[in-house]
Amino acid sequence: MGIRAVLLLVVSVSLTEAAGCIPTTSPWCYKNSTLPEEDFMCKWDKRNPKENQTHTLFIWDSEKKTFIMFANSGDHSEKYILLEELITTRKMDIWVQTQVGNLTCNSSKISVILECLVKYSAPQITSMKRSAGILSLTLGKPKDRKGVKYEIRWRERGSEWQNATFETEDSTIQDSYKLHLQKQTIYQIQLRRQAKLQPHLCKDSLQTLWSDWSPVRDVPLEIRLPLVKCWVEKKWMNGTRHINLTWDEPSAEESVGGVEYKLNINVWPCEKPKRKEKLTLDRAYKTSITYSEARISIIATNKVGSSPPVEIIIPAVKHLSTPIKGPGNVNISNVTHESAVVSWLSIPVAEQRGFLLHYLIWISGQGNTTLHKVQANETSFKIKNLHPGASYTVSIAGETMAGKGPNSTVNFETHSEEMGLSWQDQTILSVCVVALLCTIICSVAVRRGSRRNQYISAAP
Ligand SMILES: *[C@@H]1O[C@H](CO)[C@@H](O)[C@H](O)[C@H]1NC(C)=O
Ligand SMILES: *[C@@H]1O[C@H](CO)[C@@H](O)[C@H](O)[C@H]1NC(C)=O
Ligand SMILES: *[C@@H]1O[C@H](CO)[C@@H](O)[C@H](O)[C@H]1NC(C)=O
Ligand SMILES: *[C@@H]1O[C@H](CO)[C@@H](O)[C@H](O)[C@H]1NC(C)=O
Ligand SMILES: *[C@@H]1O[C@H](CO)[C@@H](O)[C@H](O)[C@H]1NC(C)=O
Ligand SMILES: *[C@@H]1O[C@H](CO)[C@@H](O)[C@H](O)[C@H]1NC(C)=O
Ligand SMILES: *[C@@H]1O[C@H](CO)[C@@H](O)[C@H](O)[C@H]1NC(C)=O
Ligand SMILES: *[C@@H]1O[C@H](CO)[C@@H](O)[C@H](O)[C@H]1NC(C)=O
Ligand SMILES: *[C@@H]1O[C@H](CO)[C@@H](O)[C@H](O)[C@H]1NC(C)=O
Ligand SMILES: *[C@@H]1O[C@H](CO)[C@@H](O)[C@H](O)[C@H]1NC(C)=O
Ligand SMILES: *[C@@H]1O[C@H](CO)[C@@H](O)[C@H](O)[C@H]1NC(C)=O
Ligand SMILES: *[C@@H]1O[C@H](CO)[C@@H](O)[C@H](O)[C@H]1NC(C)=O
User: Fold this and answer.
1) Ligand 10 centre distance from Cα of residue 180 (Å)
2) Which one, of 207, 152, 154, 203, lies nearest residue 175 by Cα?
3) Which of 140, 269, 292, 302 could share a disulfide with 124, CB 3.0–4.6 Å?
4) Among the bound ligands, the one closest to the CA of 101
């Protein structure tokens, strides 16, 4: 074996050994708030996640030249460190040693004052209100209730972010911010924040940490348009009625991020009003109410505000009364020798005085009266099994739960069985008609002539 081969072997062995221990990224350490009792967390990324490796976090006091701690985290790539084990107001060097088999390697180190490493949780938008081109945001305070520095960014969908920063105060219950936006445009917004640190300690600290960005929130247009509504009613004999209410969808720009509807239902039975409140995502609402008046108001709420309420009044069904009128325009048509069709105009709702159950139709003739019930939505009825050439009386009335209303009455006569006339009969009939007409015309003319004569004879 030549010297070259030996060298090659040594190099390759040392290379494989080096490849066996790949250092992690340098650690990043922070606490969750500026609270003095807050513990710390250090995290790092493994660059070689496959190997069976153990990590040790080293913290070195560079001023006192002593180790503060070596904390073994096993295979994990983070280590929770209790505050008591640390000195947080002096500069520390921190790094991670990795061990693979009996090889070790170190990450590069960071040099930090731990007290200056505060990373808040991402901000939370607790409410958005959009009005007259201004978006008013309220934001949850951080855990330590301190004033913080925010960065906000916003964009129209698919465009570049624009950004601004603002600071908040310690003493408030919530943080807030007003952002000017163009009125007729929908936006997306996002925020992050950082702690205001002790200036004397952290003035040259470059590691001021931002929180993560809050999730992107869509900002719809203000909900303004009153909702178009429509209601359908179905009444039952037992004194309840089903109400089906539907309303239109707000525009897509107003609906971004979702719309919720709040319904307020007030029903007045005899004693005291009953109130019901209901939140729904549907654009329809079904309920059962009494025959008394009911008022329903609907408010649409999107991510930036609420519409004005839409008030719907469902009138009472006055079920204690009967119709004050019979059906109008009762008419007989299609008369044959044995049938006829009776038609009518339905009784107007205002004159029904209650929920119309049906129409009652009496047919009287030939010493006989028959009664038919016809559904309230019908406006005609075919009368069958009549006698030819007979006269009949038809009476129609509406009936509510309280009883029947007044009759509308009409008379008619059925055709006689043999209605067809031969051409001879027709000729005779026409001759008779012509003769009759002549007689009438002649007699009129004769009378006029004699009157004129009387007038002339009376003249001097
Ligand atoms: C910070 O907060 C998160 C979420 O509440 C928690 O999981 C984590 O352990 C906290 N870190 C420290 C250092 O307290
Ligand atoms: C990793 O190392 C531990 C302890 O050295 C050992 O018990 C374990 O079996 C190893 N796992 C693998 C996948 O090599
Ligand atoms: C290194 O590990 C090998 C086995 O993988 C073992 O034989 C050797 O003794 C170890 N060397 C040291 C210095 O621990
Ligand atoms: C890693 O750091 C430790 C602690 O300072 C030291 O003892 C060790 O020699 C270092 N290892 C390497 C490979 O630099
Ligand atoms: C906006 O963002 C850019 C890029 O991140 C940054 O350089 C700039 O300082 C930010 N402006 C404000 C007002 O925060
Ligand atoms: C009234 O009748 C309708 C239909 O039969 C039924 O759905 C409803 O529950 C009834 N209401 C009462 C109070 O009995
Ligand atoms: C009420 O609306 C639902 C759909 O929203 C429909 O299926 C149902 O038939 C309606 N009922 C009445 C009485 O109109
Ligand atoms: C009766 O009905 C017929 C056919 O529909 C119509 O031509 C006629 O005008 C109606 N008469 C009255 C009084 O409504
Ligand atoms: C009357 O009779 C004609 C022809 O038979 C029919 O087309 C029409 O629908 C009938 N009218 C009614 C009101 O039933
Ligand atoms: C009266 O009506 C009934 C039932 O339609 C029928 O059987 C009976 O013959 C009718 N009487 C007369 C006198 O038409
Ligand atoms: C009346 O309502 C019934 C069912 O409730 C239906 O079958 C019928 O077609 C309706 N008639 C008219 C004229 O709408
Ligand atoms: C309507 O006419 C029917 C049949 O003639 C009669 O029985 C009924 O009492 C009348 N109703 C009223 C309110 O006059």
Assistant:
1) 86
2) 152
3) 140
4) 3
Rg over CA atoms, the chain? 47
Report the nearest-CA residue for atom 6 of ligand 1: 32
Fold of 229-314: Immunoglobulin-like (2.60.40)
The two structure tokens encoding residue 86: 């640390």
Half-sphere exposure at residue 149, Cβ-oriented, CA atoms within 13 angstroms: 11
pLDDT digits (tens, 9 = 90+) for 190-245: 999 999 988 888 876 666 899 999 999 999 998 875 555 556 667 777 778 888 88
Give the CATH fold of the 125-219 domain.
Immunoglobulin-like (2.60.40)
DSSP output for 425-452: HHHHHHHHHHHHHHHHHHHHHHHHHHHH
Q: Which residue has the tokens 């790539």?
A: 77
**Site residues for ligand 11, CB cut-off 6 Å:** 375, 377-378
The alpha carbon of 25 and the centre of ligand 4 are apart by a number of angstroms equal to: 15
Show the CA angle centred on residue 348, arms to residues 347 and 351, nearest 5°.
85
Q: Which residue, judged by its Cα, is nearest atom 7 of ligand 3? A: 102
Give the domain 328-419 fold: Immunoglobulin-like (2.60.40)
CB atoms within 10 A of CB 118: 26
* 258 phi-psi bin (left φ>0, alpha ψ -120 to 50, beta other): left
Domain map of the chain by residue range?
A: 2-116, 125-219, 229-314, 328-419
Whether this model's pTM surpasses 0.90: no
